[in-house]
Amino acid sequence: MPDTLFATLMKKIEPPGDTPHLHVPDDWMQGRTVYGGLVAAMALKSMRIHVPGERKVRSLVFSFIGPLDSRPFHIQTQPLRSGKSVTTIESRIIQNGTICCTALGSFGADRDSKIQIPPVERPEMQDPSTAFELPYIDGLTPTFTRHFHYRWAMGEFPFSGKGGQEIGGWINYREDTNCLTEEWLVALADAWPTPVLSQLKKPAAASTMTWSLGFVHLDRTACSENQWWAYHCAVDSAERGYVHERSTIWDPDGHLAVYSHQTNTVFA
Predict the structure, then answer these.
(1) Of 1, 87, 131, 247, whose CB neighbour count within 10 A is largest?
(2) DSSP 3-state assignment of 229?
(3) What is the DSSP letter of 26?
(4) Domain ranges across the chain
(5) Measured between alpha carbons, how far is 246 from 236 in angstroms, rounded to an integer?
(6) How distant is the alpha carbon of residue 87 from its chain centre?
(7) What is the pLDDT of residues 136-156, one digit of tens each?
(8) What is the chain's alpha carbon radius of gyration, rounded to the nearest angstrom?
């Protein structure tokens, strides 16, 4: 059976936003749960239905409370406040009466401001044409990763027994894409493993507890299909089974697009 396109899953989330009886196929699983980046993207898509287009997503905060499996689920979305410039919305992923994920989104219109600080520049990395292609290995790499192309350019590989402080490289979707909209970027931003897995010498599970994202909106006038997006992740601390890390994504032109902070659990 062919893999399910990300675009197909996004089309299932329609007005009024409280979409019943959704289902994610097995090719988007991450161990015993649905891939977190997809869960987050679906929550964002349900929020966007309630927000005027000129209000761009500025920040998202997710709490992954419990596993979301292959059974039907629904998304419950509620606008909390819409002011002069900012709209705040809450979304919940609910399965079998249990909340599996909560999301809080802030959407804001552009403001006139005298403050301008240049965003973080993309680090120097090996070109994606020569960087190592990370393969999909059935039974070893998470199932959802077969939806992405990876080019590893910084840091040690998972389960190599060394490194663990940072990783970096290039990523894009295997399915045909054009300019990536907000929910596509969210799913892209979560697709890499936590760097600390490099310290291990054999496979172990890791999962995200909380995830916050900030978006930098630049006018992207040049965009062609399936270009490479740069990724870098650094670990701030890891102890007693919990990891705190920050990551950044740059668009194909080298402009900052998304930054995030995650708290992960590692079962090793």
Answers:
(1) 247
(2) strand
(3) G
(4) 6-110+125-218+226-266
(5) 7
(6) 22
(7) 988 888 999 999 999 999 999
(8) 18
Q: Which two tokens mark 80? A: 């909390």
Identify the helix (H) or strand (E) that includes residue 42.
helix 36-48
Specify burial of residue 118 (Cβ count, 10 A radius: 0-12, 13-18, 19+): exposed
Q: What pLDDT sits at residue 205? A: 87
Supply 69's token pair.
């499996």
DSSP line for 69-127: -SS-BEEEEEEEEE-SSEEEEEEEEEETTEEEEEEEEEEE-----S---PPPPPPP---
CA–CA dist 244, 109 (Å, integer):
31
Among 93, 94, 90, which Cα is nearest to 104's? 90
Two structure tokens written together for 55: 């209000």
The span from the CA of 105 to the CA of 103, in Å, is: 7
Residue type, 68: L
Q: Which long-range contacts (CB under 8 A, 24 or more apart) does 79-86 make?
A: 79/50, 85/55, 85/109, 85/111, 86/55, 86/58
CA–CA gap between residue 154 and residue 25 (Å, rounded): 32
The interaxial angle of helices 182-189 and 36-48, nearest 10 deg, is 160
Per-residue model confidence as pLDDT tens digits over 192-247: 999 999 999 998 889 999 999 999 875 655 556 788 999 999 999 999 999 999 99
Strand partners, 48: none
CATH of domain 6-110+125-218+226-266: 2.40.160.210
Q: How far lies 229's CA from each of 134, 160, 172, in Å? A: 15, 25, 6
